[in-house]
Amino acid sequence: METLKLKYSLKDGDFSNAGNASSNIKKNLKMLGINAAVIKKMVVSIYEAEVNMIAHANGGVIEVFIDEEKIKAILADVGPGIPDIDQAMKKGYTTASEEVRQMGFGAGMGLPNIKKNSDDLKIESVVGEGTTLTITSYYKS
Amino acid sequence: MTIRDIVEKLDLKVYSGEKGLDKIVETAYCSDLLSDVMGNGDENQLWITLQTHKNAMAVAALKDMSGILLVNNHQPNADTLEASNDEDLPVLGSDKPAFELCGLIYQLMQKS
After folding, report:
1. Residues contacting residue A99 through CB under 8 Å, at least 6 positions apart
2. Rounded Cα gap, residues B88 and A71, in angstroms
3. Number of residue pairs across A and B with CB atoms under 8 Å?
4. Whose CA, among A23, A125, B10, B99, lies 20 to 30 Å from A81?
C-alpha cells in the first residue's frame, strides 16, 4: 500500500468543530480495513491531541500518514509550548482555563491518554514557538 | 438490551437521534470528564452525564457509544441535537440525578 496522507487545519478555540478531524481520520482508517482495536486507540490519541491544539495552542495542523505497517500522526501547533514535558505528562496536571474545564476537558488526562494509546509518542516543544506531537501506531506488529 | 428498552422501562425523554433507538446497550459509563470517557468509555455503552454540549456527542460518536443520557433535567444544546440526529446517536434525558439513574439501569441490566 502506498502512503496515504490526510491533512487538517484547526482553528484556535473552535470547540464546536473539535473532533471533526478525528472523526474523518477514523472513517478513513475504517475504509482501509485497519484492525478495529488499532483504530480505537489511534482515535483516542488524535482526539486528545486535537482538543489540546484547540484549547491551548492557537490551533494547528494535523497530518496523518498511513503505510503498510504503521499509522503516523504529526500534530503541529504554534502555541505557547510546554515548559516542562515531564510535568505535563503527569496525570491530573493541567493548565486549562476554568471555561475549558467546565466543558469537561482539562482534567490533566490528555497527554497520559495519548501515551497509553500509542506505540510511540514523541513530543517536541519550544516555549514561545510551539509543540509538535508525533504519534505512531504499528498495526501489523 | 436496547436504548429503546431502557427509555420505555425508565420513562426517559428522547431529545434526538430517534433512528438509533434500537442500538444495543451492553453496559453504561457515568462520567462528566470528556477525557475520562475517551480513555475509559467503550463501544455499546450508554453514557450517563450532565455534559450537554456538542463535544460530548463527538466523544460518544468517536467511541461508538450507543447513546447519551442527560441527568438532572439538563437540556441538550441545539448543535448537540443536530449532531445526534446526523449520527443516529440518541440523546436521552431524565429529571433524576446520576446516582439514581445508574442504580436503576444497573438493576435493569442485572435482570436482563
Report:
1. none
2. 29
3. 63
4. A23
Closest CA to B41 of B67, B22, B8: B67
Q: How many CA atoms lie within 13 A of B90 on its CB side?
A: 26
Interface contact B44, partner A, CB < 8 A:
no
ipTM for the predicted complex comes to 0.90
| Alpha carbon distance B105, B57 (integer Å) | 21
Angle at CA A49, nearest 5°, toward A47 and A51? 70
* pLDDT per residue rounded down to tens, chain B (112 residues): 999 999 999 999 999 999 999 999 999 999 999 999 999 999 999 999 999 999 999 999 999 999 999 999 999 999 999 999 999 999 999 999 999 999 999 999 998 7
Q: Which domain holds residue B97?
A: 3-111
Structural domain boundaries enclosing A40? 4-138
Cβ-defined contact of B38 to A18 (cutoff 8 Å):
no
Half-sphere exposure of A124 (CA within 13 A, CB side): 9
**A110 DSSP 8-state letter:** H
CATH of the domain at B38: 3.40.1390.20
